[in-house]
Fold this sequence. Notes:
With about 90 residues, the chain is mainly alpha-helical. The protein has helices at about 5-10, 20-30, 35-45, 50-60, 75-80.
Amino acid sequence: YREELPKAIAGRSPGYLEQGELVKLMEWKLARGKWRPRLVQFVKDLSADMVVKTTEEALRQMPVIVDPKSPKAGALPELCKLKGGCLACFRLEA
């Protein structure tokens, strides 16, 4: 999935994640760290529209993760709007 997801995102203009992709990303991430089943449920409970809009805006702001002049700007604060955690750990390179 680490190889497939960045290619899928890069193929969209503008780039974004779909709700099912975000669920799979969270499951993939948690399988490699401490398992927190509530995080998966939080992500599953998000609306598809919110996931698309929020990830699109966050990716638009890349590579600015956090703007030091405005801590509320950048990709990380945008991704934190998604309940279940900040998912700024993926790369867009194909």
